[in-house]
From TrEMBL:
<dbReference type="InterPro" id="IPR038279">
    <property type="entry name" value="Ndc10_dom2_sf"/>
</dbReference>
<protein>
    <recommendedName>
        <fullName>Ndc10 domain-containing protein</fullName>
    </recommendedName>
</protein>
<feature type="domain" description="Ndc10">
    <location>
        <begin position="9"/>
        <end position="90"/>
    </location>
</feature>
<dbReference type="GO" id="GO:0003677">
    <property type="term" value="F:DNA binding"/>
</dbReference>
<dbReference type="Pfam" id="PF16787">
    <property type="entry name" value="NDC10_II"/>
</dbReference>
<dbReference type="InterPro" id="IPR031872">
    <property type="entry name" value="NDC10_II"/>
</dbReference>
Length: 164
């Protein structure tokens, strides 16, 4: 819960976002131009696809930022070798996200400390179990995400750009 709260409250810098799928803005402009030139030229599928890519690159950056804080970051082979994820700007974003997560964790722990001792211990044990399960699910999800990213990047290199 802390991770999703922090990610929702801290968006990646636009300069980083534009490094992933850098052609999205250009394709969005081309679509707007086609629609302005011809009112029947609306392409809902393309518009939805571009929106999905815009959302997806934000998620990729946020997840990669969290993963970069892990000791086994180098095991995520794609990320450390990609210029975007090796940049100083990315590491600064990751540090800001880590600080935000730590602040949220500290606040949660402060609130937990104010609960009666027995109730707090019970809740804390439940949170540890929940956190372990969540971390395990996150790890599985990140492995799948790595595979998806690799497949998307391979596909992106084979798709010709739209020229209209």
């Amino acid at each position: 819960m802390v991770l999703s709260f922090c990610c929702a409250s801290l968006e990646p810098p636009q300069s980083l976002l534009r490094q992933l799928f850098p052609w999205v803005e250009e394709e969005r402009e081309k679509l707007k131009e086609r629609q302005a030139a011809n009112q029947h030229a609306s392409d809902f599928a393309l518009s939805a696809f571009l929106s999905c890519l815009e959302w997806f690159r934000e998620v990729i950056l946020q997840d990669a930022a969290v993963l970069s804080l892990r000791a086994d970051w180098s095991e995520f082979q794609f990320f450390p070798t990609c210029a975007t994820f090796a940049s100083a700007e990315f590491h600064q974003f990751a540090a800001e996200l880590a600080k935000s997560m730590k602040t949220a964790d500290s606040e949660s722990e402060r609130q937990l400390a104010q609960l009666p001792k027995q109730l707090g211990a019970g809740v804390k044990n439940a949170l540890v179990d929940f956190k372990s399960d969540a971390e395990r699910r996150d790890e599985e999800m990140h492995k799948k995400l790595d595979l998806c990213i690799e497949l998307i990047l391979r596909q992106a290199n084979t798709i010709p750009t739209l020229n209209t």
